[in-house]
Hints:
By secondary structure, this protein is mainly α. The chain is built from four helices and two strands; from the N terminus they run H-E-E-H-H-H.
Amino acid sequence: xxxxxxxxxxxxxxxxxxxxxxxxxxxxxxxxxxxxxxxxxxxxxxxxxxxxxxxxxxxxxxxxxxxxxxxxxxxxxxxxxxxxxxxxxxxxxxxxxx
Length: 98
């Protein structure tokens, strides 16, 4: 329980964090949203590692980061972005939701 409370305090109002030696942790108002943030964060980590491997990592300025959050980082956006993947899973594996 203590460790869970510590992680919760460290996460604060944010929706994702990297747990050293454990991996990624994401949360959301819905399971769909939390799953989407996990997928997006994993893809972001992969892109970051590739960029660093090629030596072309570019940092976003605060204005770009804010605009990205406003367009794609809200709870509604997270839920919405997951829906096509969920529909694909249901179509390919109908027993998934049983």
